[in-house]
Amino acid sequence: MVQGKAAQPKKTTSSRAGSLFKIQPGEGGPVLLLGGAILATEAGYWLGGNGVDGLVFGKYGSDILPYLLMLKGVLAFILITLFSRYLVLFSRTRMLIITTVATLVVLLIGRFAVVANPPDWFYFILWPLAYVVPDLFMVQAWGLASESFDSRQNKRLFPLITAVGALGVVIGNFATYPLSRAVGSVNLLFIWIVLVMVAFVLLYTRRYQLDRNQAKRRG
Fold first, then answer.
1. Banded model confidence at residue 2, pLDDT cuts 50, 70, 90
2. Which residue of 2, 66, 71, 169 has the fewest C-beta atoms within 10 A of its own C-beta?
3. CA angle (156 as vertex; 151, 158 as ends), nearest 5
């Protein structure tokens, strides 16, 4: 007597997506939070950065780019040195809040100062700051991603998160032209601000989850 085959459980959409992207049970939430944060961070960085480039180079031309890059290099050295120092002194949650607030302050000052017809030297400060300070925010995002998974998970999941970040780069660049036509180059900074806030909420949520899990293990 031939017995019938046991019915196979149907795969849900989430389980199919997990199989496709090699996401194992328990990893979906962190991947969504971190992927969404890095997507928003990269899209805002390139969209807003293109807006800043348009403002600065539209006023002075591209001949000033070498000088801006030199200023950016000096500023990056100073800020990364300070960031590394205070990363040891402060908790990761506090550093995330500090870098987020610093990024938002730079972008808000840049947005409102530009329309007030600032002196020429202001643009030589705005351009390096608008790139270097958000870089520190991006370092926080990737640092948190590294903390969230062990080495085996990193090898499996980082290509996926990197691909999501690359998608953010594409979206930011492709959206620059239609959005600048719709709202103006200077208002791209507002969109950048919104995307930074979205990324912060996602990163803070993941930071809270990670700290809570670590506290449970210690307890």
1. very low
2. 2
3. 85
Phi, psi of 184 (to 5 degrees): 95, 150
- The residues, any chain, with a CB within 8 Å of residue 128's CB and separated by 6 or more, are 68, 71, 72, 75, 76
Q: Strand, helix or coil at 115?
A: coil
Q: What is the pLDDT of residue 143?
A: 87
Residue 116 carries which DSSP code? T
Q: Whose CA is closest to 138, among 50, 76, 215, 71? A: 76
For residue 48, give both structure tokens: 């807003």
The Cα 41–Cα 193 span in angstroms is 10
Q: Left if phi > 0, otherwise alpha if psi is -120 to 50, otherwise beta: which for 117?
A: left
Is residue 72 within 8 Å of residue 132, measured between CB atoms?
Answer: yes
Q: pTM score, two decimals?
A: 0.83
Residue pair 144/207 in contact (Cβ under 8 Å)? The answer is yes
In terms of phi and psi (left: phi > 0; alpha: psi -120 to 50; beta: otherwise), the region of 6 is: beta
Q: How do residues 46-67 score in pLDDT, each as one tens digit? A: 999 888 888 888 888 888 888 8
CB atoms within 10 A of CB 106: 20
Residue entry with tokens 């899209």? 43
